[in-house]
Structure formats: structure tokens, C-alpha cells
Amino acid sequence: MKMDLIICGVGGQGNLLASVAIANYAMRKGLNVIGTETIGAAQRGGSVVSHLRISEQRIYSPTVPAGTADFILGFELVEALRHIDRLKPEGCYIVNSETVPTVLCSMGLDRYPTTEAILQELRQRSARGYLINASEKARELGGAIMTNIVLLGALSRVIPFIDKEDLADVLTGILPPKVLEINLEALEAGYNMVA
Amino acid sequence: MGKYIMGNEAIAAGALEAGVAFVTGYPGTPATEIVEECLRGEDVYVEWSVNEKIAIEMAMGASLCNLRALAVMKHNGTNFAADFIMHMNFTGVRGGLVLVSADDPGANSSQNEEDTRILLHTYGHLPIFDPATPAEAREMIKEAFVLSEETGSCYVLRPVMRICHSRSIVQLLGQSKLERIPEFIDDRSRFVMSAVSEPLAGGKMRPLWRHALLNQKQKKFAEYAEKSCFNSIEVGEGRIGFVGCGIGYSYIKEAESILQQKFPLLKLGTLPLPEQKVLSFFKGLDKVVVFEEIEPVVASLLRNICNKKGLALEILGRDEFLPGEGELTAEEVIHAATRLGLAKRPTAVKTSAVKAPVRTRTQCVGCSHRGLLSALKQVSRRNKAIVTGDIGCYDAGSFPPIELQSTIFCMGSSIPMASGITKTGIERPVVAVIGDSTFFHNGLLGLVNAAYNQSNITVVLCDNRTTAMTGFQPHAGSGEDIQGGSAPVLSPEKIGEALGVKTKIINPYLLDETKEALDKAIKEEGVSLVISRAPCYLLNARKGGQPHFKRREVKMVAERCNGCKICINDLGCPALYYVGEEKKVAIDLNSCVHCGLCADICKRGALIV
User: Fold this and answer.
1) Digit-coded pLDDT (tens) for B194-223
2) What ipTM was predicted for this assembly?
3) Residue A81: domain span
4) Rounded to 5 degrees, what are φ and ψ at A13?
5) Quick one: B304 and B270 in the same domain?
């Protein structure tokens, strides 16, 4: 068993928590895990990408080589586009349809591609993918902050080795008890957003 | 079962397992968390020093008293500490002293990209460990403490960003306490570095004698390298060998597993090199490719060995064959293997046809620097001022849309550079923008110089009471120490007063007051210090504090917006965005924190409170 995953988004979206949850899940299953994040210098609003590698064998490189990732979990459309070259042709992507505009695009110095153009690029990389509005779902359930958990729920459905109940158990150990119940609801909701 | 932890945590754990009793450092990505993780140790003295030179000097103080000490910094900090290091290498140490100098190949979080092995080994002649994995970094730092005491020399651990910031499963042992009682023994011939004749060396000049002793130690370092478990040979097919230094080894192994091939491989984790091991690896090879971060340090040393031994081996490295800058990857190893005819070229992954727009760094929503930078931009434009910049969150003011600061170099350089510019006699006002942590790091001396030499400059101190960019570490002006206990608040205004500098404190969320104060300071003769004081919005919010601004709900009256984008261009607030189809600005209510600044900027009454 070997699985390489890229989780990408914008600083402040809770991308790291998603990566740590899956890493802990894999550890419980007795697998090897290596991860790395590129966070740049910004606290908020910058591009953030986590590489996560899981295997029964020893793993060497902390980064996932281009064209070899099994899954891409995109918290934001442009961020998914930025890292889609990591995905292998048989891979699968799950992307949040909500966009976070860039300052340069707002200034007119840069252009935010249309959703259609981005989707076309994603589809060219792999036939298997899902575009879901995880942010909207999270807001419905109580707050955009749970977007990461909704996405994690969706991911748990497409990754064969993840069992949703076990993942919920891992989250129980990570999340503050106060918000646990609502987050588990978000996980379930995300799970149901992909077929 | 091991723990899934960050490389920095593994390094700290190794230091605690080695019985470190004294830890110092200055925050700098990618090394910061090493210092913070050492707080887990019991009875370990841990501090944020005001800069890296002071951090290594503090650690040396502890070493002189026979404690095991650790100084932690990123490569820029090592540059700053170099003056002390170039004496400490001559004197040697007493208690084990380890310097962690973290490099950032690819410059993901740095102003420059450099290889501190050159400064510390080629130039400073110190022995270095270069880890291939976080787990190895932990083993290396333990070994470094032991060898430091055996050889009486400072040892260096040089982790790269992908070691510091990668996470993996590491088995941890507990802290070990050495229970050493601090003891200071005078040894002036060693620890008084001065140009005097040394009786112990038959009257030779002391620096010369100490230099000779450092040279003699190299043999010892090399003997250890020869025995070290961090250097090893793996057999493989063919007459072209690969050398993997530090994380370079991990990328070669990854490439081997992708290609399902085994190359003759020399794994190197130490400097100096194990010469005998190198020579035995060279046997039967025609060519060797060296994968190392960042400069061709080991490649040059291998060429030296070939020259010395008269070997006709070709050594390829990062000077010609491999890229001379940036991070290594497994793909780079595969690319090299195909160019050498060792592997079939894999189908290239094509780049996306649709370009992803960049996310330039900007201030967070609610940031206290936003009002200041906006006000300073307007005032500077009006006065045709030249603005020099420094390192910290406020440096994002040099990028679009603000584009205020015209320079960024290294910690503290804004003030002396501003003084230098004004002393040319140029007829434009000059402003230096510097943060509080950077001011205490090395900005203070620039201010002293400006005051002494009667510069005509304005220094704007962005005082948000924390080292925000590296993750909110407290500093000399925060009123808090690394443990979260209370500490004296060093007052920049009192420092300004003591230096005879005109000082004014402003609240950067009040735009008119800020503009007025800046305008006045710029027009004033001599050195003016404007302290823009408001706590970091993010940190303050995390601590549950009230914001420093009066909360104002901003509403968008769309019919009044003519799409002039002044609000976007003068604030760069991520909560404001432009809707192209409607040619109007909109507020992202998910991220807006109601600081109200955009309503102050909008001249058309479209953004109102």
C-alpha cells in the first residue's frame, strides 16, 4: 500500500489540520508517514501546500514528485490549479468550488482564471475528480472554519483505505471537545457530497 | 510507537536526550520551533536572545561553565554571528556546544539563499553534521554534543528546510539530565583572544598558536568522520556513482525506488569528509555525481581528494552539471540519471496551460501595519520621500499594491541605509521602516549611529509587540519571556529620548493622526522616531484581547462605487476584492474584521460605516 496526497489552499483555511488528521490515521494503521509543508512567510492569505506520503515501505523524499500524486485535496480553485501537475493520470482530485480572490487580480495586474478554464485543466490531468462547495456546506452547518473537515469527509470516501468511523475517532483526539460534535457532522456531510 | 512530529521537534528532542541545559536562539524560519520545543525539558534554561550573535555568545558563556549548550539560528543569523564564531573556533569550548544553522534551499521563507557550510566549515573550520532525515538529525545532535566535549570544539548541525519542516514518525526517548554543577575555570591562554605573545607556545603570537591548534583538530574531526555511522557506502550497478549529502541522499533513494534501479551510492553526513571511505567508494568508478544542498561544497572537496591522489575521476556537482540554486528533488536525480544514460527518460509532466495567479504577501486582515503603510505611502508620495525597508511582516508593504519600501536587505539595515542615502546630500526626505523585534535585533545600533552622526532621517517603528512573521515570538519590547512569564518591557521611546531623538507615538488605526505625525516628522530636521504602536491583530485575537481599533461595520453602497480601486490600491486588504463584471469593489464578509479603514479611504462614500 502506497499513497501520495497533496493538500493545498490559502493560509488560514485549516489545511495543516487535515494533513495531520490523515497522518495520524495512517499511523494508527501501522503505516509509515512523511509530510512536509511549504508555507512561505505569510501568516494569512498566502499559498500553503502540504505533501503527505503514506506507505507500508520506507519513504525517502518528503515531497511528492510531479505527476505521481494519488490524490489532490484543493481548498481553493487556483491553489488546486497551482499544484495539479503533481497528480498522476489515474489520480483523483477533490476541489472546493469557493474561490479566494488574489490582491493582484483585484488590482487588475493579474487574472483569476474562470472556473471553467480551471476545471478543464484539472480534467485534462485526470478523469476522476469532484468539485464540491465545501465552504457553503460548512457555513450551513455553523461556520466556514469547518471547510477543512467537510473536505476531509469527502476525501475519506474516495481514499479506499480510509474508514470514516476510524477517521472520526482520530478527529476526536485532535479537535477540542466543545466543537467535536458539529465537526463530526461536517465530516459526514462531506462524505455524502461525493458519490 | 513513535510520534508523528516535525523535524524541528525531533532536533529539540535529540538535544534534550543529550542533556542540553542551556538553549538560546533568535526566531527565523525554518529553525524557530527548535528553541520552542526545548521548553519541554525540565530545568533547561531557554531564551529568545535579541539576536543570533548574542545567542551564540550566551551559549558560549554556558559552555565555559561546563554545561551543554545549544544555539539555534537560520542562515542569515549565522552570518550575523560569524564574528564571534571566528574566534570561538580558535578557543574551542568546554561544555558541549552545538550550533544549529538551518539553511533554506529554494528560499521559501528567506531574503536570500545560502549554504552556511561554507561559512562554518570552509571558512570557520568547524565540523558539521548534515542530516538526511529528521530522525537522523536527532541522532546527529546527540552525537554532536558528545564529540563537542571529546574534541573541545563547537559542532554544527546544518538541517535544511525540508528536514526542519517535514513531519515523520520518530521514536523519542526522554530527557536526560546530566546534573552538572556550573563551574568556571580560568584559562586565559585559551579564552583571552588577543595579539599577545604566548608563553605556552614558546612566545608565538597567541592567535597564530590557536590557529595551529584548530588546524591540528581537523585530523581528529576527520578520524571521527571515518568511523561515523552517518557516512556509508551502498553497492550498485555501473561505473557512475552517486553521492548523497544530507537530504540529497533521501532524494537519490527516492529516485532509485521510482526507477527500480540501484546506483553505487555514497551517503555523506559529515564534514570533514571520511577520506578513506571516499577512496574506497571511488574504486571502479569513472564518474561521480554529488547531490548536496546548496553549493558545490562536497563536490569541491572530492575534486581535491582526486587531485591529491592523482585520480582521473570526473566529479559532477552543483557548479555545472546540476542547478546552482534552488531545492533538490527526486525529479532532479532522475533527470541527472537520464542525462547520464543511466535511466530511460520518463514522460515529462507538462505544465498547466492555464496560469495560476500568484498570491503576493500582504498584511493579514485587521493588521495594525495596514493603516500605517497606507498613511506612509500617501505622505511619502506627497513629500517625494525615499523609504528603506527591513525584515518583518511590514516588508509586504514593498510589494503591490502598496509598493512603499524601496529596499530590503538584512536585519536592521533600513536605518543605516537611510542615513547613507541622506548623507549624500540628496534633496529628498528619507524614511526607514523597521519592526520592533528587528529594532532590538540590530536596528538600535543604526539609530545610535544616525543620532551620533546627525542624520536627517525619519525612523518609523512598526511596534506590534511581537515577532509576528515567524509565529509570534516575544522579544525585548513584548513584556513577556519565552516561557510566557512577565519580562521588563524595553521602551523604544525612552531609548529614543536617551539618544536625543524626537519621538512620537501614534495609533496606526487612526489614519488622519498618523498622516499628520508622519508629515511633521518628515519635515523635521535631525532624526525623528515615529512609533506606530498597536498589538499584532492576529496574536491579540488569539489571546482573546479586544482589538486596538473601534469596531466599525463597513457597508458597501454599490451604486456609489465607481470602481476607482483606491481602497484596494491604498490598503491591499484581502477582504476587499474587485468584481470585474460589475466593475465594483465588494467586501468579503467572511474575512472582514471591521477595522473600518476602507471607509476612511473611500472618497465616494461607497464604503461607509
Assistant:
1) 999 999 999 999 999 999 999 999 999 999
2) 0.95
3) 2-191
4) -90, -5
5) yes
